[in-house]
Design brief:
Elements lengths: L7 H29 L25 H27 L5 H9 L3 H15 L3 H9 L9 H8 L5 H4 L8 H4 L4 E2 L12 E2 L2 H7 L13 E3 L13 H16 L6 E5 L2 H16 L2 E5 L1 H6 L2 H17 L2 E6 L8 H12 L4 E5 L10 E5 L5 H12 L9 H8 L4 H14 L6 H12 L1 H4 L3 E3 L12 H15 L1 H7 L3 H4 L5 E6 L6 H12 L3 E5 H4 L6 H13 L5 E5 L14 H19 L3 E6 L7 H4 L4 E4 L5 H11 L6 E2 L3 H4 L6 H17 L4 E2 H14 L6 H4 L3 H4 L2
Parallel strand pairs: 4-7, 4-8, 5-6, 6-7, 10-13, 10-14, 11-12, 12-13, 15-16
Antiparallel strand pairs: 1-2, 3-5, 9-11
Helix pairs in contact: 1-2, 1-5, 10-11, 15-16, 15-17, 17-18, 20-23, 25-26, 28-30, 30-31
Length: 705
Amino acid sequence: MTAATAPATWRSENASWLAAALRLLRLRLHRRALETRQTGDGRISDWLLAGDDDAPGPPRDRRAIDQVDELIAQGKRTLAERAAAIEAGGRRPALLEMAELAGLSAFETELLLLAAAASLDGAFAAAFAEVHGDTRRDHATLHLALALYVPPEDRLVAADALLPGRMLRLLRLVTVDDPPEDPLLLRRLRVDDRLTDYLRGLNRLDERLDAFLLPLPDAPGANATGDVADATGVAGAIVARVSAASDRWPTVNLVGATDGGARDAAQRACRTLDLRFRRLDLDRLTALDSDRRAAILELCGREAVLAGVALLVDAVGVERGSALAAVVDEVVRTVRAPLFLISRERWSTEATTVDVLAVPRPNRRERRSLWRTALAAYPNSVNGEIDAIVEQFDFGSAAISEVVTRAAADSKDAITGRSLWEACRVQAGPGLDELARRIEPTFGWDDIVVDADVRTQLYELAAQVEGRSQVYETWAFGSQLGRGRGITALFAGPSGTGKTMAAEIIARHLRLDLYRIDLAGVVSKYVGETEKNLRRVFEAAESSGAILLFDEADALFGTRTEVRDSHDRYANLEINYLLQAMEDYSGLAILATNRRTALDGAFLRRLRFIIDFPFPGADDRRQIWERVFPGAAELDGIDHGFLSRLELTGGSIRSIAVNAAFLAASDHGPIRMPHVIRAAAREYGKLSRPISAADFGDWLTVARR
């Protein structure tokens, strides 16, 4: 139980104990004043400030000092008795709790109280000035603390309490003010309001960290949103390792996906360890200058001690060598707090106390359990759709909860399978939007003109995506395939023959997002960069179920069987990496190329579908011309038979139709043959093809205008 939620009885008892501790401090200050006061004018002897207690001094009132000593002894006994009485109720006074949590020595604890005294009772400022014999020094100093609590022979060693590496400074429990030109012994010591409130029995997170320590939704318990055995098992391993750690601030590197059980496992462990759980905002930390960032990280360490906070650093997607990665290393190196670092792969660090735990993603059975338990709180008509959703979208518990909440908010009555599916698409989209171009599917099966064999293969491709749950799970083919469960395809054919349109049609049919990745832009001349770029794409797509269309595949693929140098060898590795990633990807991945002949047959054999999109013949071109103009378009005398003689792909035909429409609009009339011919002539120019009578016949004059 934190002090913020402590019963009023404890706060009252803590306040009484703190008042007694401050009275004892006043007695010590009074004794110091008596010990250093000269007879007569009441001045403090100047030699005493030098710290030489063995030097001959002025006469002292020994009887008054003895009386104060008796009061101090009595005050110490009273303080100890009250502390014991409070502790019998289940807690210690706040100052003693802080000392225990931070591992402070008895002198460091007294020094902390001395630094806080003026913030707890303003009258101490005058007392400090009097004891120092200097009105400018109305504050606590290390010199005063040593004089009050430490025998002269031990003071040089005891002064180490304020070294930067000791707990009072390391956790910013005591702040040593400037100016730095003053000796450390005489510089102002103080505590901030956060510490003062803690001593008074109020435990709150430092508001300076509000922008950097972000709360997370509670991790689902085993009975809250389904039983995920792996997350539960990893949580137990975390608790065991943290409890047994020799370092009071262990760092645990959880290797896995953020929403794949790693965060849940850390939250479950924190619940068992009675720790608050907060996520560090790496972007905000990175934006700070180095001094400000160091101060924030020190405060994080203090909150870990005082408020029982464990920190989550989500390094999934952080590229090594980046500014974010440097900040992650700094956090691991400097933060004094229980730290959970989530990364895709083991995060190499100089720290020797990092414990590494692998967190496997929830399997399909566990995800199905998560979905059904999350839906149990809402009216729904979701039946067989769950299996398809589990197969298509690789979500963890947090994402599943968000999807169900979104679907419930969007549903007027019960959650339907369709609304749940659409909510999944919304949930999965943002990760890929930064790495690939989303294509909004606009075409249906009736829009594409291909031969019967190509159309049949496209139907089969879509059917395999739809039927994965039955084949892989119900019929158990998935156990035989191991990692190669991905559905891969190659669309080959000249530009404009319908490859991208086919991908759009399949995406629209399956109600999935379609993302186009230009492989020419992904391939890098730097060794290793291509794999890194591809890994980012597949990691972002991992849970989305989106269809990935890798265009310009020949930028990466080629005839690589003969390895002439290290570049060819590395190109083979890049191709193998892409093919393996496609096979491992849970969704549909399509390669598109204009030059199938440039691709190595050994690589082609690893693809499940290879669909050739041939140059359209005259009959196909006529069908394309007949469908290319929307029903709302005004047409007059369009000769589809003649236009089908023009040897153009469907892409070029669509471009001509649009340009002809604009020409007609500028003439304020319907679309006529001259408009189409002029647009076709422009298309020929783009394709560097001559405008000849063989193609345009009687329309040649119009085409050459």
